[in-house]
C-alpha cells in the first residue's frame, strides 16, 4: 500500500492499456493481498484527521453544507425529487406525527461513490470491479456502507471560491452554459485567497450554481434540468487530471450539477476520479454560507465532517456535511 511519501505523480501512473485504462491507480492502495475499496479516502489517515482538527477547529463556528432536500426544484438525469409525507398518528389515539421521505440520494447535495460511474470502455469500476459482477453480487462490494464503517469522511476541507474571484475579475459566469473553469484559474483563486494545499485535502469549489438557482426564473431552472443541458464546470482535460492527482486530494466537491464541465468531450473526469482513483465526488453542496464565513474569518480552510448513509452497496448518499472553524 502506498503512503503520501510514495504516491507516484500522475505521469508515473500506468499508461494506456488494451482496454483504454490510462492514469489508473488500481492496486496502488491494495494491502496484505486485499483489493482496496476506499481509493483516495486512504489518504485520510488518523494522523491526518487529528492534525486537521488541531489546525482548523479554532473558534467553534459551524456551517451546514446541505442544500434543502427539496432542491433542485427540477430534477435532471431522471432522478426522483423529494416526496415528503407527514403522517398523523392521532387516529391511534396518540397525538404524535411521523414522516416518510422518498428521493434519489443523488438529487440534491450528495456524494457519488466509485460505484456510480465505470470506466466506459472496459465497463469496470474502481479496482477492476466489472459492471456485470457488481449487479450480480452488489451486496459484496463497495459503497456508502464502507464509508460509514470507516467512520465517515472527516478531514481538512478547503474552499476555492471561484465564483467570487471570477466576479472580482469580471469574468463571465454562465451556470447552464459550457464555460470551463481551468486549473490555472483554480491556482489563481488559491493565491488570491492565500490558501495552501495539503495532501489529503477535501477540495470544495464554489462555481456559483446555487447562488444562480436562487435568483433564476422558473423557465431558466427548467431549462437547466433538461437532458442535453450544458453546465459550467472544471475543465475536463489530461492537465486537469494531472492537477487533481498531483495535489493528492482525498475527495472533491462542487456546488454545481456535474463538477466537471458538461458534456465532457475527449476526457471524462468521472472516469478518472471515480473509476480509476476511487475518489469520492460531491455535487450540489450549498457553499453560500460557507463562502460568507470564509470571507469573514479570512481563511478558506476548515474541518469537514460528512456522515454518508449506511447502505450496503449504496451508490450515492446525501452529503450530511458540516464545516467546523
UniProtKB/TrEMBL annotation:
<dbReference type="Pfam" id="PF04199">
    <property type="entry name" value="Cyclase"/>
</dbReference>
<dbReference type="InterPro" id="IPR007325">
    <property type="entry name" value="KFase/CYL"/>
</dbReference>
<comment type="similarity">
    <text>Belongs to the Cyclase 1 superfamily.</text>
</comment>
<dbReference type="GO" id="GO:0004061">
    <property type="term" value="F:arylformamidase activity"/>
</dbReference>
<dbReference type="GO" id="GO:0019441">
    <property type="term" value="P:L-tryptophan catabolic process to kynurenine"/>
</dbReference>
<protein>
    <recommendedName>
        <fullName>Cyclase</fullName>
    </recommendedName>
</protein>
<dbReference type="InterPro" id="IPR037175">
    <property type="entry name" value="KFase_sf"/>
</dbReference>
Amino acid at each position: 500500500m502506498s503512503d503520501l511519501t510514495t504516491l507516484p505523480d500522475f505521469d508515473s501512473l500506468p499508461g494506456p492499456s488494451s482496454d483504454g485504462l490510462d492514469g489508473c491507480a488500481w492496486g496502488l492502495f491494495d494491502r496484505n493481498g486485499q483489493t482496496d475499496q476506499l481509493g483516495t479516502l486512504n489518504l485520510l489517515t488518523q494522523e491526518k484527521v487529528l492534525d486537521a482538527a488541531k489546525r482548523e477547529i479554532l473558534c467553534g463556528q459551524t456551517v451546514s453544507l446541505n442544500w434543502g432536500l427539496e432542491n433542485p426544484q427540477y430534477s435532471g438525469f431522471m432522478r426522483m425529487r423529494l416526496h415528503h409525507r407527514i403522517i398523523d398518528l392521532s387516529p391511534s389515539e396518540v397525538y404524535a406525527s411521523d414522516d416518510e421521505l422518498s428521493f434519489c440520494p443523488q438529487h440534491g447535495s450528495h456524494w457519488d461513490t466509485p460505484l456510480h460511474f465505470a470506466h466506459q470502455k472496459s465497463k469496470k469500476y474502481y479496482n477492476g470491479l466489472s459492471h456485470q459482477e457488481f449487479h450480480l453480487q452488489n451486496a459484496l462490494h463497495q459503497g456508502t456502507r464502507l464509508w460509514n464503517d470507516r467512520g465517515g469522511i472527516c478531514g481538512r476541507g478547503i474552499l476555492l471560491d471561484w465564483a467570487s474571484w471570477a466576479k472580482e475579475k469580471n469574468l463571465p459566469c454562465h451556470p447552464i452554459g459550457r464555460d470551463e473553469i481551468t486549473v490555472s484559474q483554480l491556482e489563481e483563486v488559491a493565491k488570491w485567497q492565500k490558501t495552501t494545499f495539503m495532501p489529503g485535502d477535501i477540495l470544495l469549489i464554489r462555481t456559483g450554481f446555487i447562488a444562480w438557482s436562487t435568483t433564476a426564473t422558473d423557465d431558466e431552472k427548467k431549462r437547466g434540468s433538461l437532458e442535453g443541458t450544458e453546465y459550467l464546470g472544471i475543465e475536463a482535460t489530461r492537465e486537469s487530471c494531472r492537477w487533481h492527482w498531483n495535489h493528492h486530494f482525498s475527495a472533491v466537491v462542487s456546488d454545481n450539477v456535474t463538477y466537471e464541465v458538461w458534456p465532457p468531450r475527449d476526457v471524462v473526469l468521472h472516469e478518472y476520479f471515480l473509476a480509476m482513483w476511487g475518489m469520492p465526488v460531491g455535487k450540489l453542496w450549498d457553499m453560500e454560507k460557507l463562502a460568507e464565513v470564509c470571507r469573514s474569518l479570512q481563511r478558506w480552510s476548515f474541518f469537514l465532517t460528512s456522515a454518508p448513509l449506511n447502505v450496503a452497496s449504496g451508490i450515492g448518499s446525501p452529503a450530511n456535511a458540516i464545516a467546523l472553524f
